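Margin note from the TA: students keep mixing up input and output lines. Inputs are the sequences; the output is the structure of the whole complex. Example:
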Amino acid sequence: MNQSPSSASEGLSDALPGSPATPQLVPLNPGGGGKATPPSKNSKKSQRLERGSEEYRQRRERNNMAVKKSRLKSKQKAQDTMQRVNQLKEENERLEAKIKLLTKELSVLKDLFLEHAHNLSDNVQPESSTPGQESAG
Amino acid sequence: MNQSPSSASEGLSDALPGSPATPQLVPLNPGGGGKATPPSKNSKKSQRLERGSEEYRQRRERNNMAVKKSRLKSKQKAQDTMQRVNQLKEENERLEAKIKLLTKELSVLKDLFLEHAHNLSDNVQPESSTPGQESAG
DNA sequence: TTATATTGCGCAATGA
DNA sequence: CTCATTGCGCAATATA
């Protein structure tokens, strides 16, 4: 993991907010076949803001912050999800262990019952020697 | 793997789904105002490639593909993680249900034992719960 | 060294 | 309208 030092080289945007808009970019197909050129300027305040505009920069900055925030949130959520996986895994193991224990206890009791039943059918009266004592938690 | 159309869309006005009219923007870099790219021109094989270079574009395109691939992978992983969470949740419920069942069974058996013990101490020989079952004679 | 994989970031379209 | 999400490209960096 690493953090970019201070490279603020964003995607070819130009000028700082304060310098005259002098985009060093020029369309290669001025009037060729492409007429899908965006609303360009000199349109009313429809939508596209000029790249050097004050409002434009303000909007961009806000959006950039929103983007950052959103991505941070997304990452945190992902991390939480992974944490939950581990948590659930642990609980899973715990539950399985408990099941194992209960199953064993049940088995023991059933065996006792069976033994008793056999004794009955054999007409035998076993002396209650040492009864299995167990404690429940 | 998705193959993006080899559009040389820079980071400026692009991403117009439906409007393939990509105004090919090219950096005007005559050597006058470019300050964001100090690749120490004139150097031989420096590290920075020129923006109009063939190799540059090739490199960029490859990287773009790699980026797409990586992000796709990341998303898939996140999805898998969420799926795992749900899966584990279900299994946990299942296990808890089983524990509940086993606990109940155990409780019943223990009650039976207790009853039996009481009967013994009362010197009684119960015949279970089946009233009206007497041997006539 | 080169090639690919990750990551942070900005832009723009779109969703809410 | 504003803010949140999302896809995408760029560049720095990490990994092979």
